[in-house]
Amino acid sequence: MRLKALALAAAAAALTATPALAQYTDGGIKIGVMNDQSGLYADLSGQGSVWAARRAIADYCKTTKCHDKIEVVFADHQNKPDVGSTTVRQWFDVDNVDVVVDVPTSSVALAVHNIVREKNKVMLNSGAASSDLTGKACSPNTVHWTYDTWALANGTGNAIVKTGGDTWFFLTADYAFGHALERDTAAVVEKSGGKVVGKVRHPFPGQDFSSFLLQAQQSKAKIIGLANAGGDTTNSIKQAAEFGIVQGGQKLAGLLVFITDVHALSLQTAQGLILTEAWYWDQTDANRAFSADFEKANKGNKPTMVQAGVYSAVYHYLKAVHELKADGDGAAVVAKMKSMPTEDALFGKGQIRADGRKIHDMYLFEVKAPKESKGAWDYYKLRATIPAAEAFRPMDQGDCPLVKK
Amino acid sequence: MFELIGVPPQALFGQLLLGLINGAFYALLSLGLAVIFGMLNVINFAHGAQYMMGAFGAWMMLTYLGIPYWGALLLVPIVIGALGILLERLFLARLYHLDHLYGLLLTFGLALIFEGLFRRQYGSSGLPYTNPIPGGTNLGFMFLPWYRGWVIIVSIVVCLATWFMIEKTKLGSYLRAATENPTLVRAFGINVPRMMTLTYGFGVGLAALAGVLAAPIYSVNPIMGSNLIIVVFAVVVIGGMGSIMGSILTGFGLGIIEGLTKVFYPEASNTVIFVIMAIVLMIRPAGLFGTPR
Amino acid sequence: MKNYDMPIFAALIAILLVAPLAIYPVFLMKVLCFALFALAFNLLIGYVGLLSFGHAMFFGFAAYVSAYTVKAWGWPTEIGILAGTGVAAVLGLIAGLIAIRRQGIYFAMVTLALAQMVFFFCLQAKFTGGEDGIQAVPRRPVLGFIDITSDIHFYYLVLAIFAAGFLIIYRTIHSPFGQVLKAIRENEPRAISLGYHVDRYKLLAFVLSATLAGLAGATKAIVFQLASLTDVTWQMSGEVVLMTLVGGMGTVFGPIAGAAVIITMQNYLAGFGEWVLVIQGVIFVITVLLFRRGIVGEIAALATRLTRGRGEAGHIAGNPATTS
After folding, report:
1. Which of A78, A171, C111, C245 holds its CA 20 to 30 A away from the CA of C310?
2. In chain A, which segments carry CATH 3.40.50.2300?
3. Interface residue B127 vs chain A (CB under 8 A)
């Protein structure tokens, strides 16, 4: 992989005829991919995101004359806000990193978000869920690219109520993220005419969910909404299958489920699960081509929406920076990014709103039954497309100070 | 129909039963810890990692060798137990002459290594493992999956057999004597170091067995043990460290209490065990079934 | 034997005074905070022989208190740090009253369980901000005039806090009180028979250790402008054990060396991503098996061997330089 990067850098250098421009800090563009490289979210972000960022540079430089010094560095924030903030400070103060990309885990993302603003750099967030990044905490230096809690709640909640799932029981992880997901989804459910009949808050992290599932079963709700993430979600789904919840006529709605989670569960267990994602590898030829290369470099895994989002975000960032021919003033770069429509191979056309929210279509998927699946990683069937204009929280509801006049 | 603080009695029965099943895991794990601590005076911090390796072992046997669940149930504890024996011979045995805290620190380091290696190799989102006995029966007050019933039976049988072996057989009496006075026991011609080695292997095997049992119902991932180990420590401390029966009874008992907490105050269900522990320690510093040392 | 501790300490401070010229000050501040944390922990393990596996509760909870008072109530920085330290002292008193009744492994388990209770409290309580923690804690001028928004200025303040903490611990272990602690470590029944209220001594040492761990945590919260759950997890308690073990338990400078090594590793091994955990585990195992005296302990033993021509046996706090 390293060899390939070198080759790409050489190719990029060969393409570039003009000498380096003085406006670039440190004489080049330095992209820092920060995410979880070893923990719970390593599979959905991790080295895959680093690969995606490098690929975006290579693809951009293939079509456009690009700067001859574009570097990618990466770091593991271990899902700890203090590790993330130390690293990012050092990146800005010592290593001259211009832009931080990915940053899953809301607590780390918020910590990095504050420092990026203080130092006037750029954060392109793909991995974190918190809608606060473009809500009350929004900043002129952050773009939130792929998804957020509001979009997930809206996509899944709305569509399910419309297809008759009008009574809900929530299984909520007892921490701020779980509460936010539950709150946002409950609001959507009630707005579309559904009813929340009960909820139970389980400690985080949990291991055995049978007791909570039994409570959900006794509530007779049609839909059990899983307002949790990672291992908690996979454990709840696995045990729901064991207790015959789905056979009993109730359906599970995963409010934050990635394709890597479905892979971990196997179709046998996860079938019938309804979820919202921003991107799926098997949707277009461009996606499939990207995924085929990705797979070779990343232990046979398909890319997640987070990794695809990193690609798309870095691609657009490069466009804006090359337009400006400068990368020093983070707020100016983000302003430029907002003023240009986005377009790339994976996410198609879209735009970035004034509050920093990137908007695009979202997709409602249902997990296939094993017999419907035609091969490895053939997991989703499309149930609905949520158009970009409706997929994300309207700007006037986010309390973002940048929007208020 | 009467209700108990807003919860219908059927629901309560269901929750009690589920609590008991969770208790079965606590009991198996704390039993292994208690055996190791009782005989070797080592707090086996790697117990959680060995439990995790048990679950992974089941997955690996199925995936790479095609050995189904039932084979794994027998083979994995033996393989992991053998690995435990190796660890004891290579590392732990060098520390017996030192303060016991070093055993804790060493196994803590080993736990980090195991967890790290599995994360490195298999990522952290977990691996699928199919339930070998799907389906279940409706008990009237709840749906009992066959597999959970199986877990509770295995756990009770293994726990009682272990207790019987240690408390009622000749081998067990050698073991207990060796803990009290190794020099004297050695004088009778009994190979004490070998007994210690086998004991550690046995305790580790118990952890691996719990891991195999857990694979079909819990997510098989590298961090599954590190979250559980702390709870199991608390169980052992409440039961009285080193007490075999104490750890079995406390394991089941705390499972039930935790199950009830999940109904009445679910947010606190992870904490309740530690609250009980603090209370028990204030009243009986040696634990419920322990003898003060 | 001539005592070189103070000259070494003076040299260390001199190096630290010029260090920010070459090394990134925020990184140095992190090392200093953890060094103080490890020193506080070492006071218990090294001089009383008590292994606390729950020291994160003091470190992390003090961080929350100082971050909250400074951010939400607008308290001045120095008062916020003192508040965090004070709360850690109270917490130390409560935890100590429960824990010191047990010894050895039992003591470790009890502290671990208590720390878990504190962790769950922090996860549940409203004021801690859940898993997001308390973010964007302002750095207000200290005493009203020392501007700490500049990392360099703040670094010297943290250095002063660190030096003060070090001197408190150093004074403690070389006082008559410290001698009694060592006597308890070596032979508790004998200390009791000599008429010492052993539990009272242990409790006092525990509270002092908790307080200083709190000081380190409270300072760290201001340095990083955030307090988070990471600092109250049992993994953090394990980390401080690792630092002390690697540096040398029961040595005066060991915890500092250990903290420096471990933090540097975490910082610069970050590129190894998935291997960090394994490397840490390997260091743990190797240290326990081969270098039980830790970096400083081994160096001191070597120095002693060279000067006296013979070594000394290591035990849990085996350092010739301080025990003789």
Report:
1. C245
2. 2-147+282-359, 150-277+361-391
3. yes
Query: B144: which strand partners?
Result: B137
Q: Please tell me if residue A42 touches chain C, with a CB cutoff of 8 Å.
A: yes
In terms of DSSP bridges, do strands A362-367 and A274-277 run parallel, antiparallel, or are they unpaired? antiparallel
- Report the C-alpha gap between B282 and B175 in whole angstroms: 31
pLDDT in tens, C99-123: 888 877 778 888 988 898 898 888 8
Q: Kindly tell me if the per-residue pLDDT of A60 is higher than 90.
A: yes
Residue C322 resides in a domain: no
User: How many whole angstroms separate alpha carbon A268 and alpha carbon C96?
Assistant: 51
Asked if A246 reaches chain C (Cβ–Cβ under 8 Å), the answer is no
Chain A residues with CB under 8 Å of C224 CB are 82, 85-86
Q: Tens digit of pLDDT for each residue in C15-32?
A: 999 999 888 898 999 999
- For the stretch A380-396, pLDDT in tens is 999 999 999 999 999 98
For the segment B93-134, what is each residue's pLDDT rounded down to a tens digit? 988 888 877 898 899 999 999 998 998 888 777 888 989 998
Residue C187 pLDDT > 50: yes
Give pLDDT, residue A9. Answer: 52
Chain B contacts of C109, Cβ < 8 Å?
43, 233, 236-237, 241
ipTM over 0.90: no
Cross-chain residue pair B259–A211, CB shorter than 8 Å: yes
Both tokens of residue C164? 């003060």
Q: Verify whether the Cβ–Cβ distance C113 to B109 is below 8 Å.
A: no
Q: How many domains does chain C have?
A: 1
Q: Exposed, middle or buried by CB within 10 Å (0-12, 13-18, 19+), for C19?
A: middle
- Cβ distance A175 to C136 less than 8 Å, yes or no, reads no
Q: A150-277+361-391: which CATH topology?
A: Rossmann fold (3.40.50)
The confidence score (pLDDT) of residue B39 equals: 83
Buried b (16+ CB within 10 A) or exposed e, A78-116: bbbbbbbbbbbbbbbeeebbbbbbbbbbbbbbbbbbbbb
Q: Do C109 and B274 touch (CB under 8 A)?
A: no
Exposed e or buried b per residue across C189-209, where buried means at least 16 C-beta atoms within 10 angstroms of its C-beta: eebeeeebebeebbbbbbbbb
Helix axes B244-264, B146-168, angle to 10 degrees: 150
Domain A2-147+282-359 CATH (choose: 3.30.1380.10, 3.40.50.2300, 3.10.580.10, 3.30.2350.10) = 3.40.50.2300
Give me C63's structure tokens. Answer: 């961080």
pLDDT, tens digit, for every residue of B221-242? Answer: 898 888 788 889 889 889 988 7
